[in-house]
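job 3f2a | input accepted
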Amino acid sequence: MVYPMGGGLLKIGEVAARAGVSTRTVDFYTGLGLLTPAGRTGGNFRLYDEAAVARIAAIRRLESSGVSLDDIAQALRSTPVEQDVATLLRQFRQDLDDLYSASRTAEPDAQGLLAAITARAHELIATALQIAADTPAKSSRPPATPSRDPAMPSRTPAAPKPDPSGGR
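job 3f2a | predicted structure (168 res):
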């Protein structure tokens, strides 16, 4: 679709400047399918929406965590449903429990490797949480309250017990 200049859309140079990357990076990401222009101007300049800036930040964060551009592109093309994510998280929780058990009996050489792998997993989880926090919501509705999965531990602290003296 052809858009007049303005209209809240950004030219490639504006996207690059806001994202802190070169126009060649924006062009490269577009070529890989990591970014999709929202339209074009009458002069055939690509236009991007503001979400492209956040997407570039997410791509850069994932890249710096060792995730390949091919893996990022594949993940962006797929549309996992909430249930798939819940299943993966349950499996991950089981894997963490197994890793913890293995670490208790591992030889010292293996302990170092397990520590390095665990630190890497922690880094990737922190990256995922940051991306989730930085990604604009698809709708203006507040997110649905997730149903409690009995396999996952609760992170809600227990409510304080009432003071039997009534605060006297």
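job 3f2a | The CA atoms of residues 25 and 91 lie 36 Å apart.
job 3f2a | closed
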